[in-house]
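hey can u check if this looks right to u? its 118 residues, i copy pasted from the old doc so theres a chance i mangled smth
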Amino acid sequence: MAEVFDQIGGVRRVVEWVEADPRNLRDFLVMIWPRLLAAQALDSVAQKLAERPPIVAIETYIVDPKEERPLVDVTPQAPPWTRDAAPQLPNGQPQTNGQSPNGTRHPPPVRDGLYSDD
């Protein structure tokens, strides 16, 4: 492509084309120049990568955590409605939110359309 560019007049011909019409200048600055800059950047990156030593091995290391680092507790917390005092139902009975005495969740029994612990 460089040879073709030289044979059609090279830089001198591009300058003549740009100076021939203001729209040509706009076309050069908007459509051609940004592509040339991008190509230059790619060439530069390719050159730097070619100069780097090749990757010959990928190694994985397993590192034991240090004991002095504080551990983070990731135990899920109970929802707020199970930690607080049980709210009262309209019939005066405490609402258990489905929490049984041993800490397991279960749906509360229903009697007469109201929750009941009986």
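The chain has a mean pLDDT of 75.
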